[in-house]
């Protein structure tokens, strides 16, 4: 059983490593704390995963136009599942990129970013007392929401250097209490892209164990290595019976503040997620839905251009970190480079990150904040020595960060 007899707010905070037991209060997320520390020390924030450059002008103009002309119309409540043309655009996007056919009527659900999609999905499918399996490190909201649901998050580690999912370990972790398997591919923070074979195996394990798969695919358009090849889980045979996929415009179009997300899957599973989602916000962001619908139908070359810039940023940052003495793991996708700090310090990544931001003014996220407390308490675990640096920043900012880090390390 889940052993946290605390009120829901404290459970949720503890699940994401943001419960301060000494004061019985909630801390801001690790991203907010790192951002604040970087600002305090006049430094550079390579912690939070948001781009320096806003998304394309035409996309932003479409949202502005929707607000000022009430195109859509978008200034009043949308239907709970999202505007019909938004759902059609998501369905068309899934067909175009993955050959997946979805009925926009009942197989697509708009959400307030992937964050709401994650919350609604876990709350929909993880009963209190059940177990939710995730690969570790995991996006922090998984831990918060699983705990809020009263479920226990159990993890299967992704190990350097390749961070591939250990399918045998996942299978061994399934018990009769397993309600869900959480997949995040492309993965934050490792940048691992799960292969079709891996996804097939995960779907098979879920089907055999009666679990629902939540596949968080928010980094789908941030592919930096074409050979890695991202597949939505719904393109895997049989997945429609057990899996829902989550997407987000924030990362795809460099508009993380817009919070436009979606859930896709079978009509049955999407309907069940709706059971929660329509009472968390009901609906949001009509004008943003309007703009994103246009972008999903035609990105006007933005995805490829963004990938090229990110690739260059990744290579610049990875080379600089390696030069400074860190062991670097170059990702196939996403916004982040992981680096093992053991080449330059005996300290943990969390201790090193605290010094790095105060002494050198460079903010980075210790991967341990995306792990379970049991992992954090194990000094042998390599996840305690990995730091996450975001490279979705201007190249002069990355160069400045590398310079400061190198100077500080001497
Ligand atoms: C893996 C993962 N899922 C979900 C989200 C949240 O997405 P959104 O901003 O659309 O809520 C993020 C944001 O960093 C993420 O990294």
UniProtKB/TrEMBL annotation:
One of its GO terms (cellular component) is cytoplasm. Pfam families: Aminotran_1_2 (PF00155). The lineage of its organism: Bacteria, Bacillati, Actinomycetota, Actinomycetes, Micrococcales. It comes from the Bacteria. This is Aminotransferase class I/II-fold pyridoxal phosphate-dependent enzyme. GO terms for molecular function: kynurenine-oxoglutarate transaminase activity; pyridoxal phosphate binding. The keyword Transferase applies. Residues 43-374 form the Aminotransferase class I/classII large domain. Keywords: Aminotransferase, Pyridoxal phosphate, Transferase.
